[in-house]
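Reviewers of the previous submission asked for a worked example of the structure-prediction workflow described in the proposal, so we include one complete record here. The input consisted solely of the amino acid sequence. No template or homolog information was supplied to the procedure at any stage.
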Amino acid sequence: MNTLYNKITIIIILYEEKEQLVLKCLENFKNFKIIIVDNSNDLALKKQVEKNYKIFKYVLNEKNYGYSKAANQAIKLSDTEFILMFQADGIIDQKDIFKLLDAHKKYENSFIVSPTLFDKEQNVSANSGNFPEKYLYKTPIVIDGDICAETVLGSIIMFKREDIIDIGLYDENLFLYFLDDDLCKRIRDKKKAVIQVEDARAIHEHGQIKVRNSIKRTFLRHFNFTFDELYYFYKIKNHERLINELSNKVPKYFLKLLLNLIILRLNRVAYFLSKIMAFYKFKKIVKKNII
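From that input alone, the workflow returned the following structure tokens.
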């Protein structure tokens, strides 16, 4: 068993998670190597975590670099054969981690293996699905046996360290969204498999940003989703419809921003500002790439 523990590093990326959530997440990982990268530079949380658990590497970033860059930091610091990327709002038992490891070894062509996800009420949650450009949005499905998917959620996934490095790690231009789809697309291009394992179970809360300030949360969610969506579709040369739609909406967003600023509806101000800024950031990056 000790040999198995030495094969896997658990990587957790944090940003303003509550202490109780993080400590609960770590409870099942006591025997594994753990790397934590905290994009909110929470020294108090670091001290509390290290007081209760043995952490292999704990990185405090001075600013929020986003999930992709933080994940790449941690992957480079790891030294085990396998990595389990894990979001702190998930729960997985050790036996299910080893089921993922067994599945990865079982399927010769596997790159990613992912568990079957459930919510707190033990209902099946969405995980595997199709690429976003097919517009077949992920819905919970009950699978009968392991399945090969186009893409899975990146919240809980296992892969080999050398494989993720060879493929180029995560694309750091994707801050928070679509990075799992981008990774799975590159995996598919390499003729490798992304597999959801039926009898490896985990609990995960979908899509809940843990930022406590509601205005900041609104801005971060919509800015990053808008930019990441544009960038993902730009990479696959399928962004024209999205950019045209947003180009037509941006002038209206300016007016709505001003109106909501006057009446102090600050969450709406944050929403419209996020869309405008994401649009211009994308246009700037496209211009640089063309040059």
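The beta strands are 8-14, 33-38, 57-60, 82-86, 90-91, 110-118, 147-149, 156-160, 193-204. We consider this example representative of the routine output the project will generate in years two and three.
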